[in-house]
Amino acid sequence: MSNDFVWQTKLAARLHDPAEKALVLLRDPAGHENGTSRTLKRLLGFEQLAADIDLDNDEAVVKVLFNNGLPLDMYRHVQRADWWAAAADRPQFPMQAITVTTQAGEQKTLAVADWAQVRWAKHPVLIHPLTGAQFDLSRHGGLTDTELADIKQRSFDHFSRLVAALGAREETSADWRKLLLAFWRFGPELTEEADNGKLGALWGLLPADTRIPDHSIWDHLDLTSAFAGAFAADPQGEVALLTLSIGPVQSFIAAARKMDDLWAGSHLLSRLSWEAMRPLCERLGPDAILFPRLRGIPQVDLWLRDAMGLPNDLFANSDWMQGGTDANPLFSAALSNRFVAVVPASQARAIAERCAQATREWLASLGREVVARLLQAAGCDVNATTTPYEQMEAQLAGFPEVHWAAVPFSLVKPRNTEKQTDLDTAGLTGAMAPFFGVEDGQPCGFLATPAWQVLQKSIDWNDGTTFFAPNPGVLYPAVYDLAERVLAAAKAVRPFAQNKQEGWRDSMSGEAEWLTTDRQHLAMPPGQRQDTLWSRVAKAKPSWAKEGEHLGALSAIKRLWPTIFAEEVGQALAAGEKGEKKDIGRFVVSTHTMALAHQLDQWLERGGHTVDGMGDRIQKAEAVALPRKLVRKHAANPALADAKRIPGLLEAAARGTNNDAHDYEQAQRLVKTALGRTLDQASARLETYYALIMMDGDKMGAILSGDDKTTIPFCESFHPHVRKGFEARAASQPLIRQYGAQKRPISPNRHLAISGALNDFSQTVVRHVVEEEHLGRVIYAGGDDVLAMLPVADLLSCMQRLRYAYSGIDPEHEGGVWQGLTLQNGFAALKKGQQQRVMRMMGENATASCGAIIAHHQAPLSAVMRALREAEKRAKSEGGRDAFSITVLKRSGGALFLTAKWGEPVELLKKLVAFLRGQDTSRRAVYHTLEWLRDLPEPKDNPEMLQSLLAYQLARQSGNDPRAMDLAKRLTALARAQHKDGRQWLENFLTVAEFLARETRSGGQA
Questions:
Q1: Which DSSP category does 115 fall into?
Q2: In terms of Cα–Cα distance, which of 135, 263, 129, 184 is closest to 10?
Q3: 226: buried, middle or exposed (CB in 10 Å: 19+, 13-18, 0-12)?
Q4: Domain GGDEF: where (predicted)?
Q5: Domain boundary at 742, 772, 806, which?
Q6: Is position 527 within any domain?
Q7: Domain carrying residue 721
Q8: Do 615 and 721 reside in the same domain of the chain?
């Protein structure tokens, strides 16, 4: 098929249902398909396409064209795609046989039973697809019963503005593709002009089916477009599910010596993922990728504008167009290292191989640019010096690893080819058998589940209702499961070529030889490398290499990526504003600055006064990057400029920049005195510790595959009004009751919902929690993975808030008024000024574990990160997942550890820290308690004794603080609840609390 036809078919599929379907269903006499959808088809010329076809006086064809406004072959692709998408995403639903009178006489047809009809505008309820939780919008203002004509007009105005924004059309493939891309990207974002403040955030959540409001109309249109495009692009109209992954992940990210390295590793991996997806998106559109969801990803937006030609004005309100600093969302690692897509079956191999090739070509090009920049910085001939180019090419050979698998839906054969029903699953069963370890012909996987046993049979409802017969879309779970198993098998076979490495190894990873202009230099041990490529680079570009560092290919790419990408962003923003390239420095807040952030915040709140002898020194110091919240909060404070230089003053003095042995002591004394005034003290002890947190979703692979914990029964996905009618009939009909109780199989909607939730969590909510609510900085946030840096005073509060945000449930907000970030029933509502956005999170049954580390700002980052990863592993292993584990690395040596479940332990830790900070509480309260705690029996053996002695000791050391008794009771209960060694756990709890309560962290949030 021609490209024109593919893009036209995809666009027609996006228009088969109107966006406002949920608001006009059962209200529009013309029917939802003959409203905005029909008008837009006419506007875009689809009816003319149909009229230009030679009909040969075929009355059946004339009828199809008249009713749908599409050429017959295009209509059939769209119709089939709609059937498959609905079957893949929604539970089978009872239909009622009715008789209608037409000019040809009486005919029987199927319609939705009266008890299953929902006027959603009056009863706007959303269902969380992973929990079944109901989000009743009527409790938050609801929906006014807007005039039908007004709703349709606003929808039409919205899409017609998109058409107008694309300018004059010449009916080319590029134009059809632009229309499809514009409708995909901006359809869910209702402009203020079209909305007039009436629908707002709800527009992006309008359900596809009012009876089953657990997925949006946009999810359905995306899936229908994906199927339709693949049908149209395949000569036989066959489609396949393609899964592809790149790696390695952990080892690539983990190799780091600076915070910038950590960011670069994560961001580069995300960018490589996009480069793998790009060829598929160019051929079939981004809606062909079901996981991850690409809509709204800044890097994809940039591609839409610069490569696909969408007008810059369409992106004017996007966050990435606003930020001229490294806080720009383009700097976020937004994409996972794998994707799942619907592709034409005959093109699956070619597409997968092109994706792999494009990824490696992009990285090879980047590698050549990195070498050229290094040579230029070192004063070498960029073109004549060949050795580092050869090393770069050799070390990048075969990187990244790309694995893929494709499973065709043609393994399922519809016996009824006209309606795509009455399924023969023998081919699919045979293909699955080797991967499930069963004999050929024996049902396995999804085909052996109770859900399929129910779906493939008809159920007698005894009231004139029936099911639609299942089509191949219903078997998406089986096809997906098979694709995942084939991919796992492909990963198990990892052929690789030997790559000879000589001499000393890379300073960052320790794996490859370092880049050099002279291979004889590779034999030089550290201390003798006086005139190497890297020694020259270190002098010319200190941000690219510290003194003594010598890096290999991948490490060099990571080290220069912040510079290269910042330039890329600057060029992108300049292109949007049609101006000169913007200079965007890539800064990650330094560990020293982060340690001081809380004290700087207090200092600024009290006026930011300096002391004698400090002013001149501050003006000469280098400004550093501060946490975003600190900058925004004190933007109007003239002392903010001084706050940016105080860490720089201390760091320069520590490096001995002024060649004065007493310089650092003098600088410290000045800063201590200034900050001490904030605390009404003669001098403050400067905070030297900072915190890092690493959070990861639990069992994400199982959730994607449909684990029991996050899979709900069919009946729980029904609108409450429908569920009431369903349960009334199920009460007396066992088969119906059995069907309603079956767990829903995985579906494209499930994957889209998970991907959308993870995108919103990582790209919006994480940044809000870390950088708006706290004084932290996100190092990377992609999907369910988060790495962030914080002042110690914000650690506990931020950890717990992120955990709540991941699930979309915060006990303090339940039933409250939306303000800032509100988390309820698995949804997050973010309100900034007059703008409000509602996002689906992962739900109460999805959990996350977190490792946290508190370290001195001068501690080697490699050791800190190693301890942080170990803490995260402890949270998942010792904590049993849905837990956190804190490690305190003491500057003096040794470490403290605490692992516990979320909830009560965090809240109690906050309260204990606040108690220990009390004015009347002895600094040695914990030490005195620990002296006798070691002699007590295990808490399980004698909890009464432990509680009594704890209460006595805490009261005695705090001047009889009334909080002592409650703390003792709660501490005893937690210690007693530990599976083993509760006494040691309590000791850890107390020592970590004591560390957090020290006076340098006073006044902050626990």
A1: G
A2: 184
A3: buried
A4: 688-889
A5: 742
A6: no
A7: 419-491+701-742
A8: no
Q: What is the DSSP string of 267-308?
A: HHHHHHHHHHHHHHHHHH-GGGEEES--TT-HHHHHHHHHTS
8-24 burial, b if ≥16 CB within 10 A, otherwise e? Answer: bbbbbbbbbbbbbbbbb
Q: What gap in Å lies between CA 887 and CA 879, rounded to an integer?
A: 14
Structure tokens at 184: 């995909």
Give the whole-angstrom CA distance, residue 271 versus residue 261. Answer: 15
Residue 424 contacts residue 413 (beta carbons within 8 Å)? yes
Whether residues 616 and 733 share a domain: the answer is no
Residues 6+ apart with CB under 8 A from 878: 885, 899
Integer angstrom CA distances of residue 829 from 136, 199, 204, 764: 13, 15, 13, 11
Question: CB–CB of 388/375 below 8 Å?
Answer: yes
Structure-token match 């890379």, residue found: 506
Collect all residues with Cβ–Cβ distance below 8 Å to 222 and sequence separation of at least 6. Answer: 184, 287, 290, 752
CA distances from 440 to 433, 434, 435, 453, 478 (A): 6, 8, 11, 19, 16
Interval 639-695: pLDDT, tens: 998 888 888 888 777 766 555 557 777 888 888 888 876 555 556 788 999 999 999
Query: CB neighbours (10 Å) of residue 364?
Result: 15
Distant-in-sequence, close-in-space partners of 526: CB < 8 Å, separation ≥ 6: 504, 548
Q: Which two tokens stand for residue 858?
A: 């001068």
In contact, 72 and 52? CB cutoff 8 Å: no
Poorest-confidence range of 23-32, 316-325, 793-802, 966-975? 23-32
**Sign for the pseudo-dihedral over CA of 978, 982, 986, 989:** negative
Q: DSSP code of 126?
A: E
Amino acid sitting at position 309: G
- State whether 169 and 91 are in the same domain: yes
Determine contact, residues 211/118, Cβ cutoff 8 Å.
Answer: yes
Regarding whether 606 and 470 lie in a shared domain, the answer is no
Rounded Cα distance, 971 and 961, in Å? 16
Write the CA distances from 18 to 28, 37, 119, 355, 906, integer angstroms: 12, 5, 16, 33, 47
Q: Phi first, then psi: give them for residue 959, nearest 5 degrees.
A: 70, 40
Establish if 372 belongs to a structural domain: no
Q: Are 59 and 42 in contact (CB under 8 A)?
A: no
Phi/psi at 524 (nearest 5 deg)?
-75, 125
Residue 715 sits in the same domain as residue 663: no
Under a CB-based contact definition with an 8 Å cutoff, are residues 1003 and 996 in contact?
no
3-state secondary structure of 348: helix
Burial of 242 (0-12, 13-18, 19+ CB in 10 A): buried
| 93 and 180 inside one domain | yes
Sequence length of the chain is 1006
Residues 79-95 have a mean pLDDT of 84
CA atoms within 13 A on the CB side of 7: 23
Same domain? 716 vs 679: no
Structural domain count of the chain: 4
pTM value? 0.88
Q: Give the residue carrying structure tokens 């396995």.
A: 444
Q: Which of 559, 64, 163, 638 is nearest to 550 (CA)?
A: 559
Q: How far apart are CA 279 and CA 359, in angstroms?
A: 10
Both tokens of 481, joined, read 């499961």
890-938 confidence digits (pLDDT tens): 988 889 999 999 999 999 999 999 999 888 888 788 988 888 888 888 8
Whether residue 398 lies inside any domain: the answer is: no
For residues 661 and 708, state if they share a domain. no
Q: What's the rounded Cα separation, in Å, for the pair 534 and 396? A: 19
For range 265-278, the mean pLDDT: 94
On whether residue 121 sits in a domain, the answer given is yes
Cβ contact 113:94 at 8 Å: yes
Report the amino acid identity of residue 327.
Answer: A
Is beta strand 848-856 parallel, antiparallel or unpaired with respect to 883-889? parallel
